[in-house]
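User:
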Amino acid sequence: MKHIVCFHLFNDYSGSPKVLKMVLTEILDRGYRVDLVSSVGGVLDELQGCEDLHKINYRYIFSGSPAVAMLRYAGVQIYTFLLAFRYLGCKNTFYINTLLPVGPALAGRLMGKRVIYHYHENAMVKGVFYRILCWCMQHLASGIICVSEYQRSYLKREKNVCIVPNALPETFAIRLVPNPDKAFARKKVLMLGSLKRYKGTLGFIRLAWQLPQYSFELVINDTESNIDHFITEHDIEKPVNLELYPCQKDVTPFYNKASVVLNLSDKNSCIETFGLTALEAMSAGLPVIVPTVGGIAEIVEDGVNGYKIDVQELEKVSEHIQLLLSDKALYHQLSKNALAYAKKVDVEAMINSILSVL
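Assistant: Predicted structure:
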């Protein structure tokens, strides 16, 4: 039986652990044995109980203090570096999800293991620390899986780098109920993001104030207490047409009651390497509005299945929301094209490509 040892730093409900869960589920179904080393408290916990999967847990909590955050991160790298040597006498592949688990990647290369990185970030726009991790990846990896052409273009390494766009698990897609007539009638604008300012949270709230004729829902990948602190810190007055929700284990109900989905990431601070929420939205037959650059822009054709608009042009975003939700024929056309694009994204092809690298 083929054996894969997977390392993922922070197990929450964001895009990279969701993709990892899908990949590992498919790998397990194909007869592989998997050891998963990650923190507790996120979507990867749902894999526990699967046959042929052994999960090694640790506690890991982000801190608002850079010094504390770095100490915690360093502690986990030392722990997973040492833990990795339990596999010294075993024949297996180390599967590193995101740039962050550099400790086990280093241990894997010291042991002569095959070390495969699934690269989800764009280190070149995330600061010096991520650039250092990206340099390490390019020197430690036996192979690198990128999720978009945009992301691949920033790597200096040429050999053993492939592009495998993300897909959605069938278990997710079958719970979506595309219905353009009902979606158009709902007049509801949805965004899923985090409390990081560059993710566009404040811009979304401003849009809710500007467009009181529509309903707005914001799902934030964080706790209620942190959301309350963010609102207090930024002195935010919440409009009556806006509903805020903390981290959700299942986001399909939100897509099933939305009309249009936004991604308002600021390209000057954060460029999306793929944009899983956009693909999820299109799988529900929902038009999307996304940034003009990055991997997320590669899956949207402007004016066909959505629009590409910078968050700096918030008035333009507002105008296109109004255009979409006032022109039923236009909405139907974009909804139809969004769903058609999503159906072309093949889960089996994605898994086959990843397994060929692993």
